[in-house]
């Protein structure tokens, strides 16, 4: 057994004790005793409550804003020329939606809202002005997601606006009204983080899913909406099939949400309110089929792995950033939720976002996941299966990391998941800092020395007694070999 395997095994043992002790004694959501009942009545904003959990890292995945359809159907009265900028492009409304999201993120991460009752204990995560070392932004290589990222950033880090003479716009004064912030991307065929790259296995499994009419969920959908399928096929010019309906749903939905810009739904939808309602219901079912949970890890696993990597790195002081932003698509949001077993089977709306926050309390770390799918209300906290709403980091890692592919490219070629123990060893090699490794080794030596002392003491005390029974080394320790 090499030194890394030894370190990993001891680390797992030590962390198992830490996880057992990491659960708070009281409900973390219970604010009893922290509200200043004698203070003035709060009528605006958040109730000032001291939050024992400090945000140390936030990773936010969000969907782009309102857009034009990505295609039309056979009998669609609208062509690409009828949509500003063409198919699949972010609309003005979409830019506004993303700006609102950016303002929400600014309020959550650059202010002390809801965190304290005095200025001294402010626990804000980010600086109010853009700092390169604090933020990293990644987007898929689509116009609508890149533009969505820029729209979010324009509200998250607004420039210090002030009156300007237009004659100075060619000088450095320009940057008092404009704050450029870099957004990183990679070619679509190479993007396994937010897309699926060239993932033959995902495409193969998706085709099998859509063609498998014996699937209980598929049968349920086809049976419940059989009349709708026939009605849509008759008027749309598309086949009466799962793929035919898929070709129609997106254009109709875009026309539905764009009625304020003069677009109208076709009469065969408009004249029957049941048709529209069923189409919206069907969108939710198609969202479920878009990234099935059984192989969601091929699309969401790389992102979850990176998020875990960032959290471990933050704890080990090897990650400087405090905020990672990911601008992507509804299927990306679904994939991440499905990979964690947290999807609610509702189609994510425009600007839907998942907030994965790393919290610190008394030198222990917890993961909190929130989902914002309504711009008119606060995001709701998701309860992680068997781990609660504030999941100890080690438990979170142990829960998800072993099921994620070590090499997504190989997984997309059909190669199975690698051995879990080897994967954990590699993960530690890549992410533990030298100082942390030294601390682990020292702790291991101390633990082993203590165990040796206890064993020697035990044998000394029992050596003269023939009736004494041998006490084996605990199973967890004997597994070290």
From TrEMBL:
Entry annotated with the keyword Transmembrane helix: yes
Family: Belongs to the histidine acid phosphatase family.
Catalytic reaction list: a phosphate monoester + H2O = an alcohol + phosphate
Record keywords, A-Z: Disulfide bond, Glycoprotein, Hydrolase, Membrane, Signal, Transmembrane, Transmembrane helix
Keyword Protein transport assigned: no
Classification via Pfam families: His_Phos_2 (PF00328)
Gene Ontology molecular function terms on file: acid phosphatase activity
Protein name per UniProt: acid phosphatase
Domain of life: Eukaryota
Transmembrane segments: 437-459
Annotated signal peptide: 1-22
Assigned EC number: 3.1.3.2
